[in-house]
Amino acid sequence: MVHKLIELSLRNRYVVLVIALGLFVWGILAVKQNPVDAIPDLSENQVIVFTEWIGRSPQIIEDQVTYPLVSNLQGIPKVKNIRGTSMFGMSFVYVVFEDNVDIYWARTRVLERLNYAQRLLPPGITPALGPDGTGVGHIFWYHLNAPKMDLGEQRALQDWYVKFALQTVPGVAEVASFGGFEKQYQLVVDPVKLQYYNLSLMDIITKVKAGNSDVGGRKFEMSDRAYIIRGLGYIKNKEDIESIALANNGGIPVRVRDVATVQMGGDLRLGIFDANGQGEVVGGIVVMRYGENADKVINAVKTKMTDVQKGLPAGVTFKIDYDRSDLIEAAIGNIKDKLIEEISIVCIIVILFLLHWRSAMSIIIQIPITIGISFILLNAFGLSSNIMSLTGVALAIGVIVDNGIIMSENAHRHLSEWQNSQPPNQSI
Question: For 276-291, what is each residue's pLDDT tens digit?
């Protein structure tokens, strides 16, 4: 079979060259299209359902949130397993699909079931889908270098400017903020004054919610002109909260400042983020979308950060804490170096021992074509270029070179034996 294949190739040399050239061009396109990452993605094909219920114990979360969700998510097509986790104030449900299922088809099926399952949950509780990323999707970490801003201002800058800008980058599933204080208005209520004015805590909650909204009206026509009437009520500072009326005591309005103290503070924190032992910082984690090219996404994020930098306050800059592209470029650089080294060694060995440059060229041509074919197969099987696959390609180059040298030497040996076996007067 091998003998006939070699004979067929020799009789149709130009066809073989055209096929080899076509595979080489196809391989170049496959290299450009193949997603590049440093770490192979071995995570499960899953959809995460996250539900938050502030202040509830794990047992209540399990009974009233996790169990109803897990029960009603059963029966989704192509699901391998469903796991639920309950903790203080939070519920996580992991819906694991088969490996060949499209992740966005899976998210759509889960979302359809959640629309039905939500009616079984307590009022006001809404489950949400987690980001469409994987366990190795954390590709880029950064923090803000802002020595003249407090942690609350840095967190506000991160949440309301930087985060929204970076989420517009193609391939980014989520930008998770960390560190600092999330600003909030805090009401410290005096229970004695509540009792004096015959008010309850729920009265304050209701009135403050009602006082933080705009209201609409109708048109008012005057002098052939129409005016739109609306009431502006959104809170802009703590004085607006202090002025909200709660009740009427003998014709005198009872306001929030009469029963409580309003202050600006930070939300409850469960941890801090410290940078190299030099103090707390505020930053974000960029999570890559499922199946994207990590190197391409990171470069796009860096480009976007350059544009975002122009809108930051004076003295505020970005500091990169983790950049996976360094590892990606090192892996790609390694295979390029090995490719150049082995091509050079092949030329030297073949020309030195066989004194035949065409044999060296036949071996060198095999290397890029074989690498191109390997990337074609990687795309066909949905695999990315990472440390493992690129290391395998680098090792395979050595096998290709060894095989080429052995085959060339063997061909020269057979030709030499055939020439020596011919009569002296017979031309070759």
Answer: 888 889 999 999 988 8
Q: What span, in angstroms and rounded, lies between the C-alpha atoms of 337 and 345?
A: 12
Contact present, 137 and 288 (Cβ < 8 Å): yes
- pLDDT over 90, % of the chain: 35
Same domain (yes/no): 176, 303: yes
β-bridge mates for residue 93, sequence order: 49, 84
Mean pLDDT of the region 390-409: 77
Are residues 166 and 315 both part of a single domain?
Answer: yes
367 near 397, Cβ under 8 Å? yes
H helix or E strand, kind and range, residue 47: strand 46-52
Residue ending a domain, among 285, 301, 323, is 323
Residue 308 has pLDDT above 90, yes or no: yes
Phi-psi region of 121 (alpha: psi -120 to 50; beta: other; left: phi over 0): beta
Question: Given the structure tokens 């003295």, which residue do they identify?
Answer: 315
pLDDT in tens, 356-379: 777 777 777 877 888 888 888 888
Lowest average pLDDT, out of 4-18, 130-144, 166-180, goes to 4-18
Which of 52, 50, 65, 54 is closest to 121 using CA atoms? 65
DSSP bridge pairs for 248: 253
**Residues contacting 355, CB < 8 A, separation 6+:** none
* One domain for residues 128 and 191: no
- Please tell me whether residue 80 adopts helix, strand or coil conformation: strand
* 393 falls within a domain: yes
Among residues 397, 393, 297, 306, the alpha carbon closest in space to that of 345 is found at 397
The reply to whether 292 and 242 lie within a common domain is no
Residue range of the domain that includes 398: 2-32+328-418
When divided into structural domains, the chain yields a total of 4
